[in-house]
Amino acid sequence: MTSKSPKHYRSIDLFAGIGGIRMGFDRAFGPSIETVFVSEWDKPAQITYAANFPSPSPIWGDITLEETKSAVPEFDICLAGFPCQAFSLAGKRLGFNDDYKGRCRGTLFFDVVDICEKHKPKVIFCENVKGLKIHDKGKTFYIISQSLKQLGYQVFAKVLNSKDFGVPQNRERIYIVAFRNDIDASGFEFPQPTDTSKVIKDILEEKPVSAKYYLSERYLQTLRAHRERHEAMGHGFGYEVRDLNSVAGAIVCGGMGRERNLVVDFRQKNLTPVTHIKGEINKEGIRKLTPREWARLQGFPEDFKLVLSDVHLYKQFGNSVTVNVIEAIAKKVKEVLDNDKSDAFIQK
Questions:
Q1: DSSP 171
Q2: Residue 155 bridge partners (DSSP)
Q3: What Cα–Cα distance (Å) separates residue 107 from each residue in 148, 158, 260?
């Protein structure tokens, strides 16, 4: 009697960013998954993605174009971290009405629907900001859920926090997993916390970092004055120096808000400015986290190549996902697919 060969799954990576969702699924599925199509319209993100994932090539751009959609091959799993800015609690929360550089980010979800309606994959996986669940009094999430159900999918959704999965970042995001109706997904459940022990000091650089990450005295005073003004008005906005034994606040879309995750680090003794700053570097040891430290906050490995400038890297990691959380969910997805009795999956 011969044993049944293991299943092989083909995935596509839409709104791929720098590949965080793919990395989580790659870790969970191992050699049984193959990425056959990638789409990401941001050129710097494409560069970082290609440096870390040599294939497939090319990386396609605008997924709203018919020529891009027509290039999508058959696949089993759709990974789609469609843009979060339209639904973010920190933004204008315009949702499906959001327009950015002539692109309606809020409606890009329906391009995912178009592709999946044509190919009918086994699984559709999406990630977005927590605010998606309550946007427009729940109407936005209802439309998304109903769209997937009308396509013929069972929809599961849950808000998970990154700090429960081995990284010291308080980052709540909603995760949507949709299984095709012919798949027995009755046993699917989102993962329970795996590791709540990590704190900021666990992700700090081992050696002293460049003086360029330390705030100037003048800028630090500006931040303090800014916070005092907001506090006087009853607002909570302002910079924050984190205890090294605590967790970081969410690193945000666009890479802004680095001042909300400052740390005290006296290891750098040479505080001679290496960039054009106004005034001297502060003597209190207050610095920003580095891009590598942001990468660690998102669960990216040490060998993940950081090939661009800090400006791009902060933006890319802020826009990315926490790989650890994706991996934990992907393991649950794999359990369902591997136990599925159907043979209607795409062989390699």
A1: -
A2: 178
A3: 14, 21, 30
Higher pLDDT, 234 or 112: 112
Helices (DSSP H) in 100-166: which residue ranges? 109-119, 139-151
The residue with greater pLDDT, 336 or 89, is 336
pLDDT over 80 at 253, yes or no: no
DSSP 153: E
Least confident of 94-103, 132-141, 303-312: 94-103
- Please check whether residue 324 is in contact with residue 165, taking contact to mean a CB–CB distance below 8 angstroms: yes
DSSP type of residue 216? B
Q: Quick one: pLDDT at residue 348?
A: 40
Q: Which tokens in the block code for residue 228?
A: 């005092």
Strand 77-80 with 169-170, pairing = unpaired
Q: What is the mean pLDDT of the chain?
A: 89
Distance separating alpha carbons of residues 91 and 315, to the nearest angstrom: 16
* Residue 95, φ and ψ in degrees, nearest 5: 60, -130
**Can you tell me the distance from the alpha carbon of 270 to that of 348, in angstroms, rounded to the nearest whole number?**
56
Domain ranges of the chain: 9-197+316-339, 206-289
Report the candidate in 307, 277, 279 with the shortest Cα–Cα distance to residue 292: 307
Could you give the CA distance from residue 76 to residue 122 in angstroms, rounded to a whole number? 5
Q: Is 153 exposed, middle or buried (0-12, 13-18, 19+ CB in 10 A)?
A: buried
CATH (one of 1.10.10.60, 3.40.50.150, 3.40.190.80, 3.20.20.150) for 9-197+316-339 = 3.40.50.150
Active site residues: 84
Model-wide pTM > 0.85: yes
Tokens representing residue 255 in the block = 């890479």
| β partners of residue 214 | 287
